[in-house]
Amino acid sequence: DAEDLRRLAPSGAWQNSEPHQQPQQQQPQPRRRSDWGDGLPPDFVERLASHLKDSCVAEDWASVQNVYNAASVCRTWRDAIQRTCFQRSPPPKADKSRSGVEATPGPSGTRVRRKSTLVDRMLCHPGQLMEKAATEEDLIQCYIVREKKKPRAPLAQTKYKLILGPDYSAKDGKTLLVAYHQLLATRSVYSIYTGSERKEAKRLGQLESTPYGTSFELYDSKDQQAAAGATTAPLSQQQPQQPKPKVRRTRSGSIQYTFNMLGGRGPRSVEVKLAPAKASEKAPPAEDDGILLENKLPRWHELLQCWCLDFGGRVKQASVKNMQLVGKDDPDEIILQFGKVEQDVFTMDFKPKYLSPKQAFSVCLSSFDSKLSCF
User: Fold this and answer.
1) Which of 143, 145, 142, 173 lies closest to 343, judged by CA?
2) pLDDT for 294-326, tens place per residue?
């Protein structure tokens, strides 16, 4: 017992002896999460991503949704989808073959064609909303749906949705941008977001008007943290509550409607000055600092006794908002076309070579605003 051990132990040994310590056990290493890419052939995921890319159709957004579903499986699949569908190859040098296709010489002297990705073929990534020449398409067809405020809600805001797709009656297009109209004391403000939920969506810019509604200023919104190139810490190191990054506004253009009280000067006349949009990686460096557009002059129809424009069947109803914008250098090339098809549905067709989706949407929003001195 304890007394016998105390008598047998040497003098002072019991006092200096320390209690028996258990050997320290090594902490178990955190187990790596299982990856769906483990155990698969190396080229299986690459072939799957290439197959999903080839199956995408611009008129069917469900085919594009399959690409995002595959990217959400695991990290290996996400990296493969990023490389195959969304990562552009560096632009080749200006070397044209006999067929007129740009190519770059390979290591053995043979010409290798530039790899075409999904973002080159169609508008399918949020990063393309602010880019000029984001796709290789000649024309992008969209439509705008206006959701008016209720009569009993005077403080409610009118919402405008930009939806990708040529057929407005199908109602299966992808919502690209959402704008909210707020009427202040002396001006109107249109705030453009990436989604309907303003608390979760990112604000891309604003459109502000003067009291008379004839002059508009365009602004781009950008987080100062993103502009400075700061990197976010991993989720495990982030604080539970972090202040929201400050948003910096930069002026990106202006829209000017000609003073035309009571319509005595004929149809509306508009002039658009836009700052250079963020060019995509494949776009060549632009020599001009911006773009200058003006509306195409309509012709007077003797039989109908009204001003007419040829919209190619994309506009169904007459409206003062209908317009076609062209460049001053080439008045025959239509860069932006906007017109009414139903009570609250409007078509918007633009050429991505000159305008970004956000710029085209901002110009069309200016046509909705009430104008006291322009009819």
Assistant:
1) 145
2) 999 888 888 877 888 899 999 999 888 999 999
Q: Please, which residues bridge with residue 272 across strands?
A: 255, 293
Query: Rounded to an integer, what distance in angstroms lies between the CA atom of residue 180 and that of residue 147?
Result: 10
Please report the pLDDT score of residue 361 as a whole number.
95
Name the token pair of 14.
């019991």
- Tokens standing for residue 356: 């970004």
Q: How confident is the model at residue 254 (pLDDT cuts 50, 70, 90)?
A: very high
pTM exceeds 0.85: no
Query: What whole-number distance in Å separates Cα of residue 198 and Cα of residue 190?
Result: 13
Task: Return the closest-CA partner of residue 70 out of 87, 52, 84, 56.
Answer: 52
158 forms beta bridges with 181
Distance CA 286, CA 271 (A): 21
Paired residues of 278 in beta bridges: 131
CA 60/CA 129 separation, integer angstroms:
19
- Residue 216 contacts residue 270 (beta carbons within 8 Å): no
HSE on the CB side for 359, CA within 13 Å? Answer: 33
Question: Sign of the CA dihedral 93, 97, 103, 105?
Answer: negative
SS3 content of the chain, % helix, strand, coil (to 5): 20, 30, 50
**pLDDT digits 0-9 by tens, 7-18:** 544 555 444 444
